[in-house]
Design a protein that fits this description.
The chain has 229 residues and is of the alpha/beta class. The chain has an eight-stranded mixed sheet with strand order 4-1-5-6-14-13-12-9, sandwiched between helices. It has a two-stranded antiparallel sheet with strand order 2-3. A two-stranded antiparallel ribbon has the order 7-11. Strand 13 and strand 14 form a beta hairpin.
Length: 229
Amino acid sequence: MAKVVVGITGNEKEMPAMSGIKYVAVAQDLSEGVKQAGGLPIVIPIGKPELAKDYVDMVDKLILSGGQHVDPRFYGQEKEIDSDDYSLARDQFELALIKEALRQKKPIFAVCRGMQLLNVALGGSLHQSIQGHWQEDVSGTSHSLEIRPNSRVSQLFQAGTQINSLHRQSIKDLAPGLVATAHDPRDGTIEAYESRGQQSILGIQWHPEFLAKNCSHNQKLFDYLVQTL
């Protein structure tokens, strides 16, 4: 049986710093999660939007990975924070990938920034700056989950499950076609959503790839992505 091909959106990283030499970057744990689930990960580098159809044609499912802030122009706002952590080229390309994946009815799994961008693509908006959601250490967890019963997340996680928190923006207005399925009990931040319709969409605010090695529930999330979503 052919493996399920999962496209993972790549970021760009300058190495060494200030060298002008850029590399395509994806957290290894993200591709490892797909491989451990029996899928075949393919990294999709940032490109021109007109390439989106060719890339989506190649894959069975799409992961929108984490990274920079989403430019607020895409949800009708001006920048409210002093930050250079944006990539207009990445936003434009990944929005084109989302549009094409929706057109082809291919499942989308969105992580952190990816979850925020997908919400924006579907008509939602973001809080540009939030406090108390950036843990100091990439490893380990930060807070628990409140989970909506009979949701995709409830099939994989129990209420009270500990997750990590590595984001400085969050969902403000949820897109009309989505339903929130998990929240941060501390302040109600949306931690997961899924589609209300037939399109297979699952968005996760935390980084399951950093927890999957030591947490069977987070690895089951990748199993679900490859085998079911």
